[in-house]
């Protein structure tokens, strides 16, 4: 895939916003996409956040492979970072996060002066930051949407227990060392579709799926067999779904959009595109 311009002007502002507000917060909640736990961790956030206490939220757990969710949580915990699986649509995981926040709150302020904890939520575009905030406040405080770039400016919100939360726009970084990172972010909707070549993206996605979840792909599109190449697979999917243009030409564009949509909404199945390193089991992390 050709290089893509994923660094619009507001990203620079967001970076400054995070840096400037960091001083004021006691805890950083880093929201990542459970389907791509490596690619959705922004190295800039790491650099900015430094030693600040942090909780990692593996969000969209419902869309990711349950086994991998467990392994990734254990992996982060083994590295000394509190990590929690979350589903902001159902609310699963919110209670556990509240527990972690209360524990942290006890360490804030002096014995004489107890003040409510201040937190900042950071993460790549579209990973669910605003959805998590709405879960925590219990109402629609922050605007959400199924595309990147919904939150534009910063927004402070107060929880019912008095804690204060800062929502931030999604932040990407200027250069992807590994092109796979850009692809993964694009599959998951963190990069605006308008600047991507949908057919190219879907072909890369099909290639990854053929390697990682071939059976799932075969079953979803009721294919006897996958193609030898991703292009062949796409053609088989298009034929099954009737994505044919006049003159019996294959409608690649429509097929590509369908495959990506069905991945993003979880209709293909629960998919994690990055495997947890090592052989850490949840027991090791306890
Ligand atoms: N399936 C599923 N969808 C989720 C979950 N959390 C959020 N979403 C959806 O993901 C999309 C993006 O959510 P937002 O909360 O707007 O994401 P954001 O990180 O604030 O995005 P920006 O403000 O654009 O950076 C929305 O369509 C949400 O409904 C989850 O746990 N599971
Ligand atoms: Mg948002």
Total discrete domains: 2
- The number of helical elements comes to 10
Strand runs, count: 8
Strand residue percentage: 5-15%
Shape-level CATH architecture of the largest domain: 3-Layer(aba) Sandwich
> Shape, please?
elongated
Name the poorly predicted regions. none
Q: Could you give me the name of the CATH homologous superfamily of the largest domain?
A: P-loop containing nucleotide triphosphate hydrolases
The CATH class of the largest domain turns out to be Alpha Beta
Distance between the termini: 41 Å
Explain what you see.
- It is a single chain.
- The strands form 2 sheets. This protein has a 6-stranded mixed beta sheet, with helices on both faces. Strands 7-8 form a two-stranded antiparallel sheet.
- The model has no long low-confidence stretch (mean pLDDT 88).
- It is 39% helix and 12% strand.
- It has 286 residues and is of the alpha/beta class.
- Helix 2 links the parallel strand 1 and strand 2.
- Guanosine-5'-triphosphate binds next to helix 5.
- Magnesium ion binds next to helix 5.
- Its main location: cytoplasm.
- Pfam families: MMR_HSR1.
